[in-house]
Amino acid sequence: MEISGIISAIVIGVIIGTLGRLVVPGRQRIGILWTILIGIVAALVGAAIASALGVADTKGVDWIEWLIQIALAAVGVAALDRAKTARR
């Protein structure tokens, strides 16, 4: 993977993680680095799911792929927040 691929993965991770965090109601007690990591993982897994479903490459904006990625990020943010809350 080239440096441009790493940078774009981080940027997409920030966007997907932030959107996923906005979808989850209430206050989340996780840091920005966790949000970025969840966003990167959600972007990669969401792209794989969209590709398996055949909706990854469409004409124009891939809205279904984005929705899958944001939903996965929201689930990841909520799960990590609940795990951190349960520890306290």
UniProtKB/TrEMBL annotation:
Protein's name according to its UniProt entry: GlsB/YeaQ/YmgE family stress response membrane protein
Keyword Transmembrane: yes
Location relative to the cell: Cell membrane
Membrane topology per record: Multi-pass membrane protein
Family of the protein in this entry: Belongs to the UPF0410 family.
TM annotation in the entry: 6-24, 31-51, 63-80
Keyword Transmembrane helix in annotation: yes
Keywords of this entry: Cell membrane, Membrane, Transmembrane, Transmembrane helix
Coarse class of the protein's main subcellular location: membrane
Lineage, broadest ranks: Bacteria, Bacillati, Actinomycetota, Actinomycetes, Kitasatosporales
InterPro entries associated with the record: Transgly_assoc
